[in-house]
Amino acid sequence: MQLNNYIDGKWQEAGNAKYVSVTNPANGEELAQVRLSTIDDVNKAVAAAKVAQKKWALVPAPKRADYLYEIGRIMKEKKEHLSQVLTKEMGKVIEEGRGEVQEGIDMAFYMAGEGRRLFGQTTPSELSDKFAMSVRAPIGVVGLITPWNFPVAIATWKSFPAIVSGNTFLWKPATDTPMMAYEMAKIFEEVGLPAGVANIVFGSGSTVGTAMIEHPDVKVISFTGSTETGRSVAELGGRHLKKVSLEMGGKNAVIVMDDADLGLAVEGILWSAFGTAGQRCTACSRVIVHKDVKEELEQRLLEAMKHLTIGDGMDESVKIGPIINKNALEKIHSYVQIGIDEGATLLAGGEILSDGQLALGNYYAPTLFTNVDKESRIAKEEIFGPVVSLIGISSLEEAIEVNNSVVFGLSSSIFSRDVNTIFKAQRDLDTGIIYVNAGTSGAEIHLPFGGTKGTGNGHRDSGVAALDVYTEWKSIYVDFSGKLQRAQIDNS
Length: 492
Fold this sequence. Notes:
By secondary structure, this protein is of the alpha/beta class. It has helices at 39-56, 61-77, 79-90, 94-113, 153-164, 179-191, 205-214, 227-239, 262-274, 291-305, 326-341, 377-380, 396-403, 419-428, 467-470, and strands spanning 2-3, 5-7, 10-12, 19-23, 30-35, 121-124, 130-138, 141-145, 168-172, 198-200, 218-224, 243-247, 252-256, 284-290, 345-348, 352-353, 363-364, 367-370, 387-393, 408-409, 411-415, 433-436, 452-453, 471-479.
């Protein structure tokens, strides 16, 4: 199967004859071929989106929302099919695949509800017989650049608020996972979304992504990916005065205090660290544990890790699927060697798995380090794999200092039974998301998603906050006095 671009409501071949194979990371099977688009393909998509946006902005927001309700309904009907496609192309276990598709369904219905809100503000004027208000206005054509690890959820976080706000969009999915974008395009087509509102162009970041950022008619860029790439997006976007929304890396920590429920903490750590094989921006990469319970937590984690099943995500009994590709596998393994060289104690894992059927795919053993120096590379840098570092601390203040010492600020978690400890942590942890007595993953779509420092640039995906990325504030003053009134002068 060859995947074509979806531009102006039609399936179109890319101008470039080159293609890449889409393979199942669980077994190496080729699933599809995707053509690598050119700058001309981007220009066609932007032109279509620009024409469509003028009409789309005039459609009443509740009518725009009706399309999202229908998209959500069809996604719900096709949930199992979509989940299986997602698991095959990305590798996450089918249970997580279903969860990700459900997140897209939830976002469709949530953002559809905004079609009857999109709230502005009314305020008193400082002058007589004058009315003052603000409203949200669409921006125009927006560019969406999405990652491979959440190939549909993140795309819905970005595209659905853009749609309901009256924008049109150009979406560049990751070349490792283009099939979910293809499936979503078919749904856009099925619901009759007007031509040009949704445009999907497959291709590389260096060609397609760069062309989107540089195009003068693309007014907004929303990017999710690595901090290194995000910095380049911001630099290029800044030169072209784009509104740029960035959601990037994380080095997330679970704090386990001496009064914590250790059984619950172990469950939270396992889910956060090894779900999606650690390939989440919210994955737990550090466990900051009080020294009084550190040894017991280590033993409990080691025992629980023995029961983790690894393999093809389509197997319902499997809990950990493959790594996305060979390059990512090698990067993870190189960080494990760095940890050993730095003097950390390797308690479990630390190897590429190649026995039996696992040899066909990209599998890494769940890995646990202890006695990790808080200043070491494995304690500071994003690994993006199933590798966890245990760092001992003696107080809440030390735990917060260690948590906040990294360049990222996405997600953090604390396990404690003490209400005073919990409220201090909520106040002092400098991450965009904080969990109490839960792991570092599990965000819900009606709250803002994003982080501080090297994780983002102040914008948020998901929740009402996402609308700020795709709308401009317009202030409107209506003077019905019949005379010229000058604010700050005539009321002095």
